[in-house]
Write a structure and sequence with these properties.
Length: about 425
């Protein structure tokens, strides 16, 4: 049945179908496992409190900075087909151990803090590892035909994972959810081995895309920072990401406060977060299929990168006036659905105005150190405003002002992108 559904969505040769199904199942398990346990992270945040979570943003940023050169070193020396099962096996082991520790001591704050940082760093590169592995399996022509159908497995997993958490959290507890996530990552390793076996059994239908796995040279972190600060356009994208992170972080701390005050049981909180995740993924999938492309083609990138910032101006003001759980859920869902369906595709389109090699170098810097740095800055700012006596409503009004700046920044970037490729930096002038 899955083969029939996939065949309707893409031109898949019958000889390719086993590999496509295995890849579909692989990304399904990865996304299902990740989104199943992410709700436990949010629950842990409500238990740890604002001050500790603010410190954890620092640790996450430091870990993210360490991941970039470390990941680059591994990619330069090992094929993803080799280290992908190692990565996913370590994730499964870590989730199982964390689940065991929380089963023995549900209030173990050290384990919660470790889990918060681990899962926050994990989402930065687990998808990159997957798609890098597929580039070793499928050739350039196949990627155009098959990757869309395979990506649908990730969307399905991202929808089912939080749904399972919402349904089972009360029965199996947070530790049970972590065990479930560990099992899904073990299944991902099995799917990866099956995919390799299928590929080796029918080599004539596949081609190893070796060229995709070659390093671009230089130091990605140093070169990316240099490009970021020598191009106004790229610096504008960096500011866009910092403002995006600020909006997310301000809302995240408001979420911690309201959910903590509304639900006493950690299992209830996990169930609530799982339900929100499921609704977000379902709405996102529908908008991606039926709205994102139409908005981009008719209204351009400007619309994609300004719709949600403008909406957040009104959302933050509404939350400042009506600080209820219902209003919080409405704003959270609108922000996250809009980010996944509009802002994220629009942000990726902004990079199309940058040369390929420069894009590779600077994108890692913006997506990881800059984004997580924005988390740190905004969490520190929010904490200091609270310490200075600002009420939650006043902080939300301040957040509405940040959203307005975000919208202006997005409008400028969208207009600049429509003018064409970003001009290269001129060479140094010589005398004469």
């Amino acid at each position: 049945m899955l083969a029939r559904l996939l065949h309707r969505s893409a031109k898949i040769d019958p000889k390719e179908m086993p590999a496509v199904i295995a890849a579909f199942a692989l990304i399904f398990c990865v996304m299902c496992g990740y989104f199943a346990v992410r709700s436990v992270r949010e629950t842990a945040s409500t238990i740890l409190g604002n001050d500790r979570v603010t410190s954890l943003f620092w640790y996450t940023w430091i870990a993210s900075l360490a991941i970039v050169p470390g990941y680059g070193w591994v990619v330069a020396r090992f094929r993803r087909a080799k280290f992908l099962p190692v990565v996913y096996s370590l994730v499964a082991l870590a989730l199982a151990l964390i689940g065991f520790a929380l089963q023995r001591d549900p209030k173990n704050t050290f384990v919660m803090e470790f889990f918060f940082v681990m899962i926050s760093v994990l989402n930065l590169f687990m998808i990159s590892v997957f798609w890098g592995f597929l580039l070793e399996i499928f050739d350039k022509e196949q990627t155009k035909r098959l990757f869309g159908a395979i990506a649908a497995g990730g969307s399905a997993g991202a929808l089912l994972g939080p749904t399972l958490t919402a349904l089972l959290a009360k029965q199996i507890g947070n530790h049970g959810v972590l065990y479930m996530g560990a099992a899904l990552f073990v299944l991902a390793v099995v799917c990866q081995r099956i995919l390799l076996r299928v590929w080796h059994a029918a080599p004539a239908t596949h081609a190893v895309a070796v060229g995709h796995d070659q390093p671009v040279g230089g130091n990605p972190l140093v070169d990316g920072v240099r490009l970021l600060f020598t191009s106004p356009y790229l610096l504008g994208i960096g500011v866009f990401v910092i403002l995006l992170a600020s909006i997310n972080t301000f809302l995240y701390f408001e979420q911690l406060r309201i959910v903590h005050d509304t639900f006493a049981s950690p299992a209830q909180r996990t169930q609530v977060f799982g339900t929100i995740d499921a609704v977000v993924q379902g709405l996102t999938l529908g908008l991606q299929l039926f709205a994102t492309g139409r908005i981009a083609s008719r209204l351009g990138v400007v619309a994609l990168v300004t719709i949600i910032p403008i909406a957040m101006v009104f959302g933050y003001l509404a939350l400042a006036l009506f600080s209820s759980f219902g209003m919080l859920v409405t704003v959270i869902i609108a922000r996250r659905v809009g980010e996944y369906a509009f802002v994220r595709p629009g942000r990726e389109m902004l990079f199309s105005a940058v040369k390929n090699q420069d894009r590779y170098r600077v994108k890692h810097v913006i997506d990881v150190p800059v984004y997580r740095g924005g988390d740190v800055l905004s969490s520190q700012l929010q904490n200091r405003l609270g310490s200075a006596g600002w009420s939650p409503s006043t902080i939300l009004v301040f957040g509405a002002g940040i959203a307005a700046l975000w919208a202006l920044n997005g409008w400028w970037l969208g207009r600049r992108r429509e003018l064409g490729p970003v001009a290269e930096q001129p060479a140094a002038q010589t005398g004469g």
